[in-house]
Design a protein that fits this description.
heterodimer, A: mainly alpha, Rna Polymerase Sigma Factor, Chain: A, 0% strand, B: Jelly Rolls, Anti-sigma_ChrR (chain B), RmlC_Cupin_sf (chain B), Anti_sigma_zinc_sf (chain B)
């Protein structure tokens, strides 16, 4: 699976939306998926919702399968999409691209499902959303985050130039939910090597804005 | 303002959803007060979105979308869902009066409260520590990794001054002797991956794992 990710990472482009509207000037850098998500939030637009489903549901299913939740993969897709519907009114395109927002919902729903399998709700003193937050929620700061929308485009662009060994490590962390230590054990390389590959990758991806106290 | 931040590797584990619950809580509390790290996590979440997109094709069952529509039709319309009133995860967990918690005094200047039982099924030890204003803690090293966030007040050690919402990870090589600044009692939340190793005479008493 890692090979797949690596191979696709180098060549796969985001598909162009089938909708015929072009972003207007007023909509600035809103990407097509973010426009669709906004329509769901504002108008409960089911056509837009279905377009999002067509694009993101296979990704979410694969996300579940990649980390051993195959038997719950369809369930996760459902949970994520019900959550997207419910929360779409809170979505603000200025704070996150739709794909980033949907990724964080998928991540949280996965954690939530695993937590609920492991314990009773009475034991859940802290809700998943209190631990892992969705970008743009619970923020009272003025909108200053146009660079957030840029970051995804930048990440995708820079990913093409990363060596495969760095992409492999990142894929294992994000898709297989392996800790840096587990990645080191699996690849039979020292933990320090894993960490330096991640650091090199993040540097190139310019994800590290400023790293202090390392 | 906070000056000590989590490193990128830890933020990446957070963004990927791989941290334990107590570690995630420490990060979350820091993020709530640190716009700098919020934008770092936003960028990492974008990386997650791109990783999720780079994948082999799988087919979603045709009936899944219908099941989803059936579910949302049986629920209230989304416009009736209002944003929740934001209450800090810390208040939810510990209430709003940190000083009023059932602290166990262990030394003249030091009280502790083990809250590991709030995180059932987790292996980490989660400990609140209170160092009274101007108070000194005995020197100690750490047998494992200790992740700490300052909830109130400030302390200083050989690495600098740690203010409210500052974040610090200490490892085996770090011996320190924290001193609380004058003014407020200093309260920290620490997640310990292994028990503290104590170096001073009074150290044994401070160690929440030796009773």
């Amino acid at each position: 699976m890692t090979n797949n990710i690596s191979a696709h990472a180098a060549v796969k482009e985001r598909p162009v939306t089938t909708l015929d509207q072009k972003p207007s000037r007023a909509e600035g850098r809103k990407d097509p998926w973010s426009q669709l998500l906004e329509k769901v939030g504002k108008n409960q637009d089911r056509q837009a919702y279905h377009a999002l489903f067509e694009h993101f549901a296979p990704q979410i299913k694969y996300y579940a399968m990649a980390n051993g939740m195959s038997s719950h993969a369809e369930e996760l897709v459902q949970e994520v999409f019900v959550s997207i519907w419910r929360r779409s009114c809170l979505y603000d395109w200025r704070k996150a691209a739709a794909s980033t927002w949907i990724f964080t919902i998928a991540r949280n729903q996965r954690i939530d499902m695993l937590r609920k399998m492991q314990r009773t709700s009475a034991e859940m003193q802290v809700e998943t959303e209190d631990l892992w937050q969705i970008p743009g929620e619970n923020e009272d700061e003025p909108v200053t985050s146009l660079h957030r929308l840029m970051s995804e485009r930048r990440v995708r662009e820079s990913l093409r130039h990363l060596p495969e060994e760095q992409i492999t490590v990142i894929a294992k962390v994000y898709m297989e939910h392996k800790s840096h230590q587990m990645v080191a054990d699996e690849l039979e390389i020292p933990l320090g090597t894993v960490k330096s590959r991640v650091r090199l990758a993040l540097n190139k991806l310019k994800v590290i804005l400023q790293d202090q106290n390392v | 303002m906070t000056r000590h931040h989590p490193d990128s590797l830890m933020l990446m584990e957070y963004s990927a959803g791989n941290l334990s619950e107590p570690h995630a809580l420490c990060i979350r509390l820091h993020l709530d007060k640190c716009a700098h790290c919020r934008s770092r996590v936003d960028a990492l979440d974008s990386l997650g979105a791109v990783m999720m997109e780079q994948q082999s094709q799988v087919t979603v069952e045709a009936s899944t979308f219908d099941s989803i529509l059936a579910r949302i039709d049986s629920e209230p319309a989304p416009e009736t869902v209002t944003p929740r009133v934001h209450r800090s995860p810390l208040s939810k967990l510990l209430g709003d009066d940190l000083d009023g918690l059932p602290w166990k005094r262990q030394l003249k200047d030091v009280s502790v409260l083990d809250i590991s039982d709030r995180f059932p099924g987790q292996q980490d030890r989660v400990v609140l520590q209170k160092l009274c204003a101007g108070g000194k803690a005995p020197a100690h090293t750490h047998r494992g990794e200790e992740t700490t966030i300052v909830l109130q007040g400030a302390f200083a050690d050989n690495k600098g001054v740690f203010n409210q919402w500052d974040f610090v990870v200490l490892g085996q090589e770090d011996e320190h002797k924290p001193v609380a600044l004058e003014g407020d009692d200093c309260i920290t939340l620490s997640v310990l991956s292994a028990p503290l190793k104590l170096t001073g005479t009074f150290g044994r008493l401070l160690n929440p794992f030796i009773r």
